[in-house]
Amino acid sequence: MKAAAVIPSKRFIGIVQHPEPRVTLPGEVKLRMLDIGVCGTDREIARFVYGFPPDGSEYLVIGHESLGEIVETGAEVVDLHPGDLVVTTVRRPCPYERCIACRAGRQDFCYTGGFTECGINGRHGFMTEFVVEERKYMHRVPHELRDVAVLTEPLTIAEKAVSEVWEVQRRLPWNCVRQKEGAPGYCMNALVLGAGPVGLLGAMALRKAGFNTWVYSLEPASSPRSNIVKSIGGMYISSSDASIEAMSSRIGNIDVVYEATGASKLAFEVAQVLGRNAVFVFTGVPGRKQRVEINTDELMRDLVLKNQVLFGTVNASARHFDAAIADLSAFRKLWPGAVESLITGRFPLEHVSSLLTGNKQGIKSVIEVS
Ligand SMILES: [Zn+2]
Ligand SMILES: [Zn+2]
């Protein structure tokens, strides 16, 4: 069968012939792949700066943002059936007994670094016709989410980040004055850096949690991305119109920053306007190796005197996949059309090379395998 793959030793990116997998264990499930999202990680893999094939394979089948339809289940799989739609998680646990995180099913916190990731590190991904995986790594998706469920995986980044923000902010033993059911952040300000898919999905998660949500990004004040921000009740500030200082004085106390650019210079400049008792969440991985000058005295003084927390987070565990699936439904009810508008292009598998190496276009491109 066909698969989109990279061969790092030959600097090849394109279609390879990959053996069609079979269900051999009772806990396994076979999927016909439907939609696979393309993201910055895939583009880095296509530049051969990231990712490696499984042991014994020359190539790596790419693709980690997936939606598949079940075509066959092993004898022990009783709660999923052919025709069901599922999203499969990406990271698999390391094999080491001493890794208490992986042994607890939380390989997103792996201590050893010996984990693998489908389509990224040491394990084939989902940009192919059929995939066989263990049931325990799959999450069922309602059929009404068929057209947007490929966004589940990028949304898990925000799900984990927001849940950890609340873990940290349990240190603040008070609530917004007029508590609103299910929206604990409604008296607080959240700032999202970047209006890519991770940023925009993060903005939706923060809006749903009640935050006054601002998105600061490169695009002009009137653009498809800023329109999405406005459609979810957020506020958009273009970095070409407002400096970081001007932006921060418009917002007031910045209670949460959700960084989704991977640009370390911007991130640490914004960290200097972080508010009191606030949390800064890093989700991006810097690609460049630039040196940035920052005033570490000021940064450290603010960390102490303003009770600030800076933390990084890598997606995600099973609970965040379930939360993301539930939130995709919730976002659609709250803001009809907003989630759909993140997917700006659908392409056949054969277009993978130009999609990954050409100029980036639109917000989220999706490969339609079938
Ligand atoms: Zn991705
Ligand atoms: Zn581990």
Span of the ends, CA to CA? 13 Å
Which consecutive residue ranges, at least 5 long each, have pLDDT under 50?
Answer: none
How many runs of DSSP E, i.e. beta strands?
19
**Strand residues, percent:** 15-25%
**Name of the CATH class of the largest domain:** Alpha Beta
The number of distinct helices, counting runs of at least 4 residues, comes to 10
Task: Write the element-wise H/E pattern from the N-terminal end onward.
Answer: EEEHEEEEHEEEEHEHEHEHEHEHEHEHE
Structural class: alpha/beta
Radius of gyration: 21 Å
Q: Average pLDDT, to the nearest integer? A: 96
What share of residues is helical?
A: 25-40%
Summarize the main sheet: 7 strands, mixed
Keywords:
binds zinc ion; 7-stranded mixed β-sheet; 370 residues; Rossmann fold; 10 helices; Quinone Oxidoreductase, Chain A, domain 1; 25% strand
Sequence-ordered SSE layout with sheet pairings:
Elements: E1 2-7, E2 12-17, E3 28-37, H1 40-46, E4 60-61, E5 65-73, E6 85-88, E7 91-92, H2 100-103, E8 116-118, E9 122-123, E10 130-134, E11 138-141, H3 152-169, E12 189-193, H4 197-208, E13 212-217, H5 224-231, E14 235-238, H6 244-251, E15 256-259, H7 264-271, E16 279-282, H8 296-305, E17 309-312, H9 318-334, E18 343-348, H10 352-357, E19 364-368
Parallel strand pairs: 8-9, 12-13, 12-15, 13-14, 15-16, 16-17, 18-19
Antiparallel strand pairs: 1-2, 1-4, 3-5, 3-10, 3-19, 5-6, 6-11, 7-8
Polypeptide structure, described:
- With 370 residues, the protein is of the alpha/beta class.
- The protein folds into two domains: 2-148 and 339-368, Medium-chain alcohol dehydrogenases, catalytic domain (Quinone Oxidoreductase, Chain A, domain 1, Alpha-Beta Complex), CATH 3.90.180.10; 154-312, 3-Layer(aba) Sandwich (Rossmann fold).
- It has helices at 40-46, 100-103, 152-169, 197-208, 224-231, 244-251, 264-271, 296-305, 318-334, 352-357; strands spanning 2-7, 12-17, 28-37, 60-61, 65-73, 85-88, 91-92, 116-118, 122-123, 130-134, 138-141, 189-193, 212-217, 235-238, 256-259, 279-282, 309-312, 343-348, 364-368.
- Helix 8 (296-305) links the parallel strand 16 (279-282) and strand 17 (309-312).
- The longest helix is centred in the middle third of the chain and has 18 residues, at 152-169.
- The chain binds zinc ion (ZN) (2 copies).
